[in-house]
Amino acid sequence: MIGPRKFIHIDMDAFFAAVEQRDHPEYRGKPVIVGGDPKSRSVVSTCSYEARVFGIHSAMPTAQAKRLCPQGIFVHPHFEKYSEASRTIMSILRTYTPLVEQISLDEAYLDVTENLLRLEDPVALAKLLKQHIFAVTHLTASAGVAPNMFLAKIASDMKKPDGLTVVPPDKVLEFLEDLPVRKLPGVGPKTEAILERMKLKTCGDLWGVGARQLSEKLGKWGAGLYRMAQGKDDREVNPYWERTQLSAEETFSKDITDIAWLQGKLAELAAHVFHELQEEGRAGRTVVLKVKYHDFEQVTRSKTLSAPPRDWQIIHEIACDLLEKKTAAGRKAVRLLGLGISGLTSKEAPPPVIQKELF
Ligand SMILES: [Mg+2]
Q1: Residue 353 reports pLDDT greater than 70
Q2: C-alpha 106 to ligand 1 mean position (Å)
Q3: Do 16 and 158 belong to one domain?
Q4: Is residue 354 scored above 60 in pLDDT?
């Protein structure tokens, strides 16, 4: 192939909250917070842009969100609705190219270097995608267009909501020079603090440092960071990526020592996980139990079966066994239980291999 590759990253705007506002006209223009009960220890899943004005954001305790915005509309998540919208969006994207990599319910990468519309201009294509998604779902998306995946992701986040940001191949270094390092995927508060001590704030600052010096401070991750700061990313869109684990968890409003009560909770979680597996036509053999104690210490315990469990009762039984024999539950108070199935495979035949030569 001659010339740069063309990638688009699509990210739906405040997805869960936007679906709620679409389906409830009375929520529009108002702060909508999707998450658990504010009286419980749950956290905010997504909130509308009107709620962000109050300083509310994802992963904040719902109780804190309620204090910041008592007049907010607090809604329990409706995952069936979100996954339905997600399926529609992903199928729209696949009408433009089979090279779509879904990252979560509301996020995907597309390699549009070659596309089914034979459009040369990826910006025109991104506009079309956004319009198409809106026409069908009444939801807005933000898009990033760039010559590689990580730049496309950073770009899609720059002008939310309903944004479109383009990083042309000849403007990559210009785009990165003043970009704060924390905008790079994988740079969390820990890495940021280390870089700050080295007086490195922007990607441009990293250019003069060199991969070796970064690796000394950051380990293996330093070399990758150095490459990113220079705009390098050779990853390919992988259309067959899929979740390898399916799980559910719950944080309790009180720390619990009663093991019988915890076993009851595990029954709920097992039934939920088993239902999801069936919905998605997936199966896996490893049951994973996660326990977080009152002091925030967390353990995971797992057991691999000879065959995928046939019903939720089997998952429940194994989870109870792990809880009793392999954790300190009962002796130590528990604040969170999680249950999942990992090593998932699809029950259906794998998708056909795409013959790229066809384009
Ligand atoms: Mg999103």
Answers
A1: no
A2: 5
A3: yes
A4: no
Rounded to the nearest angstrom, the distance between the alpha carbon of 283 and the centre of ligand 1 is: 28
> Exactly one of 26, 107, 236, 279 is catalytic; which is it?
107
- Contacts with 10 (C-beta within 8 Å, 6 or more apart), sequence order: 89, 93, 107, 108, 109, 110, 129, 130, 133, 141, 142, 143, 156
- Report CA(199)–ligand 1 centroid distance (Å): 32
Distance 160 CA to ligand 1 centre (A): 9
Q: Give the tens place of pLDDT for each residue, 205-258.
A: 999 898 888 888 888 888 889 999 999 999 899 887 666 778 888 888 788 999
pTM here is: 0.74
Mean pLDDT, rounded, for 62-83: 91
For residues 205 and 285, membership in a common domain is answered with no
d(CA 151, CA 144): 8
**DSSP label at residue 327:** S
Report cis status (omega within 30 of 0) of the bond before 161: yes
Task: Give pLDDT tens digits for 119-149.
Answer: 999 999 999 999 999 999 999 999 999 999 9
Could you tell me if 204 and 285 lie in one domain? Answer: no
151 is in which domain, residue-wise?
7-110+121-167
Asked whether residue 234 is domain-assigned, the answer is: no
Are residues 186 and 318 part of one domain? Answer: no
Q: Which tokens is 18 given? A: 């936007």
Is 107 among the catalytic positions? Answer: yes
Give the pLDDT score at 91.
93
Distance (Å) from CA 354 to ligand 1 centroid: 28
Cα 121 from Cα 125, distance rounded (Å):
7
Domain membership of residue 359 (yes or no) is no
CA of 295 to the centre of ligand 1 (A): 32
Q: What is the CATH number of the domain that holds 53?
A: 3.30.70.270
